[in-house]
Each structure stands twice: as structure tokens, then as C-alpha cells.
Amino acid sequence: MTNSSKAGNYRWFVCGLLFFATTINYIDRQIIGFLKPTLEVEFNWTESDYARIVMIFSACYALGFLVFGNFIDRLGSKIGYAVSVVVWSIAAMLHAAAKTTFGFAAFRGLLGISEAGNFPAAVKVIAEWFPQKERGLATGIFNSGTSIGPIIAPILIPWLLGAFGWKEAFVITGALGFIWLVLWWIYYEVPAKQKRLSQAEYDLIHAGQPPVETQGAAEKKIKWSQLLGLRQTWVFIVGKLLTDPIWWFFLFWLPSYFASTFDLDLKKPSMHLAVVYSLTTFGSIAGGYLSSSLIKRGWPALKARKTVLFIVAVVVLSILLIRFATDIWTVVILISIAAAAHQAWSTNILTVVSDIIPKNSVSSVVGIGGMAGSLGSTIFPLLVGSLLDHYKAIGNIGAGYNILFTICGLAYFVAWGIIQLLTSKMKPVEEVLKEK
């Protein structure tokens, strides 16, 4: 067996590229949450108008998952990822050219379609570059970009807004993707073509897996109709459909929640939001580390992932206590715990795909499940917007948020229960395909 400490660490450099891309992805999508008060004045938005714009982004994001999942499996991770980043960076910058709400929403939709390529590409890269025992930690590291982006945003975006204006904020943050693209194109290639990779590290990456030339039918791209007939695919669909809307709620409404409930000034850098998203970074990495640690101790991969998912479902219940809190820092702590737990969930549900789906179909399954999660995230803002408008009209918007926090707290237990049922008698993909 190859010693991982002596084999080399180029795979972790690749993981770093995924982390930075994911960080930029989340800065570009979350900027709207911090510019919301300014844009409400600029475009005369109501809460329902804002909800519909979030819904358009979510719907297009869902479509983008389906498009890019298949696109990346066909053309490979290097080209597929690059195309996604180019288009989303251009879309992010185009927000500055919007003159009407319709135009703004159109650019938001283009951003949604193109940003969806990030996760199908990143999970495919993890499957290509990491042995199973390291995938949880590697996924946790790159997925922590979904937390680091929101940590940077409360500091960077208010400063850009104050120093330059909302249009310049979109242009500057959108341009970050092109810096990443240069590094990706120079330094990334699949392991079989990467000249910077040592033979020892190559052997470590492929330890316990069939040789590339003998992987056979299991490594041929599986048709969508076949993927939808697999319990493995539905494990990921359920895991995303019921929990992605919660994370999007945290991203798009937490700034507004703190502003309306605790009079937080969003035109100034926010330590409260920075703390929330800082702790989610811990959740992402810790969740991946825990499942990887259990696998190294001899646990079956799926059992390790599901155990962490159950722990997450218990921890998220802390958010139900917010209705009893009156101090902003108490609320920050409770939301931080729930949001960190979500990131641990996200890391493990993404890693499950690379555990139970053949490599050449990983992006397609991530695309299908990501589309399901985005559809849920498309519908949920309608409830959020109408609920908050109703309670704002009667002068008790806090009650609306309490209802939403209750939904957030229970969603993970429901998802875990369904996943447990799906995996109780699940057969390996190869066996199911032979039977058909």
C-alpha cells in the first residue's frame, strides 16, 4: 500500500483550486443579499419581488445542473468547469448593466444556469483525484468555499458598495472568476494526463480501484433513464431536494433577517454574519473529516456517511430555539450551529455520490440531484416571500421567521429517514444494470 505522506500532495493542490472556485461562486451569488436594501430602493422591490428574483435564479440553477451535469461528463472536468466559470463571471458582471427589474432578473437567470456547473465538475474532480478514504475530507475542504464566500461577502461587499457603488461591486466580484480560470487552465489536468503527478501519488489515487483499462461497463456513462431507476440516484435527489432550500434561505434572507429584527446596518461590514459563515466552514470540513475517519477505521463508506447525516439532523434542531432568544449574539450562535451542521450534511451527501456511482456518471447524478435541490429552492422562496410580506403587514415579521426556522429544523430528519429507507436494500449499480 502506498504511504500517503510520501506519495506527494498534488491532489490537495487540485482540491485547493476547487475550493477557490467554490468561494468565488458563492461571493457572486450572495452579493444580492447584501445589496438588497440598496437594490430595493433602486428598483422599487417588495419582499415578493425579491423572492421572485431568487426564484428565477433557483429555477435557472436547476436547469443549469441538468445541462452542465451531462456536459461535464461528456467533455470532461477541465473544459466543462472552465466553460461554467467563464459564463457565470460574465453574467455576474452584467448585473451592473441592468436598467429594469426584468433585466436584472434575466442576468440573474444566466448566472444561475452557469453557476450550476460548479458542483458537478468539482465532485467529478474529487472522484478522479482522490481515493475513497480521502474523499470526505477533500469534499469538505472544497465545499467550505460555500462558507468562506459568505464570510468574505459581509466584509467585501459593503466596502465595495460604500467606496464605489452597487454596479462596481458586481463588476469587481464578477471579474474574480477570470483570475481563477488562468490557474485552472495552466495547472489542471486529469491524473492520467497530469505530468506534475508522481507515479506514487497516481498509485495512491487509484488504490483499491480497477485499472483504468479494465474498468469495463461500470465506467461507461450510464443513460439518464437508467440513472433515474437507481436507488443511488434517489439518495442524492432526496438529500438535496429537502435541504438545499434551507441553505439558500440562510444565504439570501439572513442579512435581511438581522436587519429587520435587530436593526443591523447592512451598509457596514457585519461581524455577526461573518461569525455565522465562519462556523459553517468548520462544519463542512469537520463533517468530511468525521466520515473519512470512520472509513479509515474500517466502517463501510455508506454507513459512515449516513451516521454523520443522522448526527447533523439532530444538531440542526438547535435552530428551533431561536423563537425564545432575544439577544442578537444568542441568535447568531444558534443559526451558526444549524448552518454548520448543514454544511456537514452537504459535504457528506456530495461525497456519497462518488462512493456509490461510477466515475463517468458522477457529474450526471450530481446534475440530477442538484436540479432537484434547486427546484425545491425555487418553490421555497415563494413561501418565504408571501409569509414575510403577510407578517410584515401586521407588524410581526419575527413570527414569520420563526415559522421558517421551524421548517428548517425539521427538514433534515425527514430527509435522513427517506435516505435510510432507500439504502436498506440497495444493490450495487453494476448488479442492478446487469439485471436490466
UniProtKB/TrEMBL annotation:
Where in or outside the cell it occurs: the entry states: Membrane
Q: Which SUPFAM superfamilies match?
A: MFS general substrate transporter (SSF103473)
Keyword annotations: Membrane, Transmembrane, Transmembrane helix
Topology with respect to the bilayer = Multi-pass membrane protein
Q: Where is the signal peptide?
A: none
Major facilitator superfamily (MFS) profile domain residues: 14-427
Q: What is this protein called?
A: MFS transporter
Q: Which organism is it from?
A: Ravibacter arvi
Its taxonomic path starts at: Bacteria, Pseudomonadati, Bacteroidota, Cytophagia, Cytophagales
